[in-house]
Amino acid sequence: MNEIAIQVENLSKCFQVYSSPRDRLKQFIFPRLRRLFGKSSKHYFDEFWALKEVSFQVKKGETVGIIGRNGSGKSTLLQMICGTLNPTGGTIQTYGRVAALLELGAGFNPEFTGRENVYLNATVLGLSKAEIDARFDDILAFADIGEFVEQPTKTYSSGMMVRLAFAVAINVDPEILIVDEALSVGDELFQRKCFSRIEAIRASGATILFVSHSGSTIVDLCDRAVLLDAGEKLAIGVPKQIVGRYQKMLYAPADKYDAIREQIRHADDYVISAIDNSKNEINDAIEERLSTKHITEIRENFDFNLKPSSTIEYESRGVNIGMPAILNISGEQVNNLVRGKVYRYAYNVKFSSSASSVRFGMMIKTTSGVELGGGISAHAVKTSIAFVDADSSYRVEFRFCCSLNPGVYFLNAGVLGDVNGNETYLHRVVDFAMFRVLPESEDLATGVVDFFCYPELELQ
């Protein structure tokens, strides 16, 4: 039985870029004439390779995210998988009905009504008229555009067009769903509805491949992630690790970008090792929780062996963060925490260069990389530290109440400042420290965050 949903092998795409319409005309005429006279052909265009020998597999039922900077080839890759672009080289194979959310509404006829466009678009996606009839009410309910469905789509707002196009695409029961940044459209309620529907499609066993610039979305939804840059596949693996590499490259200084890029390209063995170690840490924590669930009294303490092995450090811009520590109110270092108590997360910052508009931050994340919450030293740039002299040092502390349920969690640290008029990271360390929230006996809380929910039952 074939367990592969999408197979991409050595996929390449080259576009011909013309400097003027005249060169395009020359390319159409002159090479043919030169061949007729036995001369070698000449090109009147420049080649732009949007993708270069990209290979990967997506298994059935897997959710894979593609992340990368603008111009890295993400959308081109999805368009070739969907068949709207032909590859210059390589092969693509898909196994199952494909529904694509690329340029939403691009296939709609503006002169047709919403109803007519639903039937047209759904037919292109492979549904019969009977199937569309059976699903039309669901499509209309999801789009929530009311009587406008009987009006020509040229009268629609962009939001209405997006709603209708999305509603059609996700109601064809796809075996493979391909999404290109469509999750960022619409208002918050519609986005939540879209996420909920995609989660339901995922739960049904469908394969999902999507592009996003949101690292938290990739971490939250995906089983694996692919990092593309300048048309090349740099890395593929666990979403948390891939997003960390992407962000490290994204915030790298221009003069060190190429070196960091090469480091990421050749870091697979190290990352796999780091992932394995993280899994061991998580499994150990689970086993400890199970073995101590009858504890009657728990106390915070420090475990020297509880150290992150998945740390990712951004390139420094004259600032270095060091010496992370979690302290209790008495000032003792701890990393096994008790729910409900207040702790201090501290780190040192050394400025080797002067900096302006400086803010310090922290973030608490799950083991899968989902950001739970954090803090920053100033709510806006205008209330930040206006100027920091070179050779200055700061001790940064954030107090937080541990409202998390038992498990293992990670801490980030970051320093923001002005670089050429833009706020960016002067230094950042991901998975800088980690801690464990100790289990309690007779614990009724569920999920990640403890909202202090208590049941009240009354027999009626």
UniProtKB/TrEMBL annotation:
- For the keyword ATP-binding, the answer is yes
Q: Name one GO cellular component term.
A: membrane
Q: Which Pfam families match?
A: ABC_tran (PF00005), Wzt_C (PF14524)
Q: From the UniProt record, list the coiled-coil ranges.
A: none
Q: Which GO terms describe its molecular function?
A: ABC-type transporter activity; ATP binding; ATP hydrolysis activity
Q: Which UniProt keywords apply?
A: ATP-binding, Cell membrane, Membrane, Nucleotide-binding, Transport
Which residues does the UniProt record annotate as the domain ABC transporter?
Answer: 31-255
Gene3D superfamilies given for it?
A: abc- transporter (atp binding component) like domain, P-loop containing nucleotide triphosphate hydrolases
Query: What family does this chain come from, according to its entry?
Result: Belongs to the ABC transporter superfamily.
Official protein name in the record: ABC transporter
Organism, per UniProt?
Answer: Solimicrobium silvestre
